[in-house]
Amino acid sequence: KMLSRLSLRMLARPQLTFLPRRGVLHLEDRAKDPGYKRDELPQNLNTYDENILEETEVITRMKYVLNQFKLVDLKTLDWDKNFEDVGLDSLDQTAIITSFEKEFHCIFEDTVFDTFDNFNQVKKQIIQGVGS
C-alpha cells in the first residue's frame, strides 16, 4: 500500500523538460514538428553569439559570486567604491577575483589583476575579455 502511494506521488510530480537557453527553438527542433514548413521560418533565429556577455548577465553572475562570500552587502554595494572602502582586504580581493575567473572561465593577466581597484573595473574587464 505504501509503495502504491509513493508511485502515485511520483506520477503526480511535474516532469522536467529541457528548454532552449534563450527561449527560441532551434531550427532542428522545429524541423521535427510535423506541421513544420521551412519557408515560413525566418532564417536568423539563432544569431545569438555565445562569446558575448551582456552587462546585466555579468552583473548577475558577479552578484552570485559575491553572495557566496557574504563579505559585501549587495543591497548597498557601490560598484565604483574601492575594495578597501567596501571592507575587503587584499586576501579577500584575491579570493573574490579568482572566483570571478572561475565563474566566467577566464584568466586575468597579472598586470591587469593587480590594477583592479573596484568591482566596476573587474566587470568591464570581463565584458572585454570574454568578447575577445
UniProtKB/TrEMBL annotation:
Keywords: Phosphopantetheine, Phosphoprotein. InterPro entries: ACP-like_sf, PP-bd_ACP, Ppantetheine_attach_site. Residues 55-130 form the Carrier domain. This is Carrier domain-containing protein. It comes from Euplotes crassus. PROSITE patterns: CARRIER (PS50075), PHOSPHOPANTETHEINE (PS00012). The keyword Cell membrane does not apply. The keyword Amino-acid biosynthesis does not apply.
